[in-house]
Amino acid sequence: MLKANVQEALNKQLNQEIESSYIYLSMAAWLEGKNFRGMARWMRVQAMEEWKHAMKFFDYVIERGGKVQLFDIAAPKSEWANVQDIFADSHKHEMKITGLIYGLAKLVDGEADYATQVFLQWFVTEQVEEEASVEQVVAKLKLVGDGHVGLLFMDAELGKRAG
Ligand SMILES: [Fe+2]
Ligand SMILES: [Fe+2]
Question: How far does residue 20's CA lie from ligand 2's centre (Å)?
Fold first, then answer.
């Protein structure tokens, strides 16, 4: 059985992951509108991954005999200055999520909930990967600047993302 405060924190993170999915979907929509179809694909795949993260929390709460609770989700931002701006936002968002996962890990540690500690380990590792992959994109886009050929190359590259 989950402790009430752990259950609440897990449900909050479930919602955060859904919100992440929503944010990335909004980013995909903006990129589609600018005809960056490859970058939009990258964001669509990201949105689907975040949904899968949400479902991991969903399934875990159920498995522990807990109660899933869903909260309101704020409307995401829908306008960006350029592709550098959008990927910088995505990086900032991942760093925020890492902080939330660490906060959750700390809470669970204090509660000596070892099963949830093990469950959260996957997310700790995942965040390292997520931050690294978006940092790569941010760095490359910085080099490209507003060079059209570079932007088209990046669009083609990011469109190769599997998912
Ligand atoms: Fe996530
Ligand atoms: Fe993420």
Answer: 7
Question: What is the structure's pLDDT at 40?
Answer: 98
**Model confidence at 104: pLDDT above 90:** yes
Q: What pLDDT sits at residue 1?
A: 87
Amino acid letter, 116: T
Measured in Å, residue 29 CA sits from the centre of ligand 1 at 19
**What are the tens digits of pLDDT across the range 28-48?**
999 999 999 999 999 999 999
d(CA 50, CA 16): 9
The residue assigned the tokens 């509660």 is 111
Distance between Cα 53 and ligand 1 center (Å): 5
Instruction: With beta carbons less than 8 A apart as the criterion, state whether 26 and 76 touch.
Output: yes
Is the distance from CB of 31 to CB of 86 less than 8 angstroms? yes
Long-range CB contact pairs, 129-135, < 8 A, 24+: 130/94, 130/97, 131/91, 131/94, 131/95, 131/98, 134/87, 134/90, 134/91, 134/94, 135/91
Q: What ligand has the least distance to the C-alpha of 17? A: 1
CA of 15 to the centre of ligand 2 (A): 13
